[in-house]
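ok so I'm stuck.
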Amino acid sequence: MLREPSFGLAEIAWRWSFGAACLFGLAFAVTQYLKSLTISGRDLFLLRTRQPTLIVNAIAHIFRDSAFRAMEAVLLLTAVLAIAWVTLCSLARASTLKSLFSYFREDATMASRQVSGVLLRSLFGLSFFRVVVTLAAALGCVSAFVIGSLISPASNPAPGSAFLVISAITLLVWLAWSILNWFLSLAAVFVVADGRSTFDAIASAVDLCRRRTASVLAAGSWFGVGHIAVFLLATSVVAFPLGFAGVLPAGVVLGGVLLVTLLYFAAADFLYIGRLAAYVAILELPEPTKVEAINYPTNTPGLGESAAVDPTELILSDVPSQA
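replied:
not stuck anymore, here's the structure
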């Protein structure tokens, strides 16, 4: 991360460009959706009364028949962004991993090689599975709230039980998503390194974790601790502009929060590419050799059990003249 900051900057470039596209698409979809709403004179009159009950009734009347259009906009935006992410992530990961392997192998020709169709298809498959896992996790979190609402109905509310159930299901879904997403991201290393297919790369990632458990666990743990430290530092620093919200202008406070947020995202991207480089190093560097015990021959005198004194052999005490 320190010797070659270009890797981190490249990670920031493609991730932030996709984030900007997401924000632009979301803003465009919300704008078009709001333009499609119809506001009658009665609704406008109720909104101007400044009475909470009347305002809520007016808003409910405005959005009454627009739920289907909102669902269509959400599905369309999700599909477009998913396709864009699969394409962009596959191309960016191929370029980044090629450069990382050329760095560790000291082979500049590998970084200049053209990306083959087989390699891109495998990376597309891994990215597609990551999207599917993410959508499944989102549905799992939504189902947690649905189950919580069933546990705590309006007729017999039980907010404590509902909170425990929602928290437990959300935690399990997050753990499952984290593990699967981590394996899929690690499998991309084997696609670029050996040109493996999607499922072969996943199997190779599992095999690497089995063979080099300590190394993989150490790399993931230390970078995870670093990410947590950066997050805690960012949440502490962001409290300073928020503390002056009543003194400074709103634009200054919002700019300070946005600056801290961007710095946190940049540090997280550098840590991600550093962890990916650590996995590449584990794969490229030789495994530590094991010192095996030396098996001495049993007939070697003076070693092992064969070194015991032969009871039939005479010693000085057995000779009367030498006693």
